[in-house]
Design brief:
305 residues, alpha/beta, Rossmann fold, 12 helices
């Protein structure tokens, strides 16, 4: 878990930066920094996040562009900040992720940036290498395992675009009364960072969380403040608002439903390939998957002076 000045760290069963030892091991998150002074605007926080990252490491970075909104924002931010990076798009067999690949290629063409497509055989990976990586990490989501292998294809500091601030309504779709909204941190979202640290590889797996200002500025956006104050009935999370938030910065950002990443020509309804579910059922059923939740007030108390 690469963080500027180690402002955030993780522990397993009380051991900071430890590894998951059993399927029941529980992750905890440690917040180690207070933000002094007024928060920057969200768009400035994104740019500052990228510039601090550049000043901490050597360019170019190797950005994994999935075709979703998270990685699109990273590429757009690097482009806006003039930060050198290579762009890699992993293409799966059988057009499993053809929609996302097309989105990624279209973005690169729009921004006039070079990209490289890497062909990756997903089924072969699950048949030959996934179990070894799972045994090393005990991560709770089978669909995350290929990302661990992606690291081997990248020569510079890999960038994976996890960590975008995610808030969810505690009462879900029940709008009969006012609800709290909770910032959620999921263990599986840190799988790349945890694995990279365990093998001694510098990887920025959670780009949005490199500095805390991105997280804290995001919740102050007018649209997000409306959500967190329960003013937009029908919304249960921030997912469907991501395009609207970033469209104010880059007008050509388009809404992309957050599905499962396998919306192919022959599989348009977003089902994972059966071999992934089979792998999960055989090896991963019952594994502990921790979700850590904070209210807005709790985050403010932990991170603001």
């Amino acid at each position: 878990m690469e963080r500027y000045n180690n402002w955030m760290s993780y522990s397993f069963d009380g051991v900071e930066y430890g590894t998951k030892q059993t399927k029941d091991s529980v992750i905890s998150i440690n917040l180690n920094k207070k933000i002094k002074g007024p928060l920057p605007l969200y768009k400035d926080a994104l740019i500052n996040n990228a510039r601090i990252m550049r000043d901490s490491y050597s360019e170019p970075f190797d950005v994994c562009l999935s075709g979703g909104t998270d990685s699109e924002v990273v590429v757009r931010t690097f482009k806006s900040a003039g930060i050198k990076h290579n762009t890699f798009i992993f293409k799966l067999e059988n057009d499993y992720n053809v929609r996302d690949v097309n989105n990624a290629v279209n973005l690169c063409n729009e921004l006039n940036i070079n990209y490289k497509i890497i062909n990756f055989n997903l089924e072969q990976f699950f048949n030959t290498e996934a179990l070894e990586l799972f045994n090393k990490t005990l991560l709770p989501m089978a669909g995350r395992l290929p990302r661990l292998k992606f690291i081997d294809y990248l020569d510079n500091i890999p960038i994976f675009c996890d960590g975008e601030p995610y808030w969810r309504r505690e009462l879900e779709s029940d709008y009969s009364k006012k609800s709290k909204w909770l910032f959620q941190v999921h263990e599986d979202g840190y799988s790349v960072s945890i694995y990279a640290r365990s093998i001694g590889r510098t990887v920025i797996g959670d780009w949005y969380e490199y500095t805390p200002e991105v997280l804290m500025s995001f919740k102050e956006l007018p649209l997000i403040r409306q959500l967190l104050n329960d003013k937009l009935h029908g919304k249960i999370s921030t997912n469907s608002s991501r395009a609207a938030v970033h469209k104010d910065i880059w007008p050509t950002v388009e809404f992309k439903p957050k599905l499962v990443g396998y919306e192919g020509l022959s599989n348009p309804v977003a089902h994972r390939p059966q071999f992934i579910d089979d792998f999960y059922n055989q090896h991963m059923s019952g594994i502990q998957d921790t979700t850590i939740k904070y209210t807005k007030e709790e985050l403010d108390n932990l991170l603001l002076v």
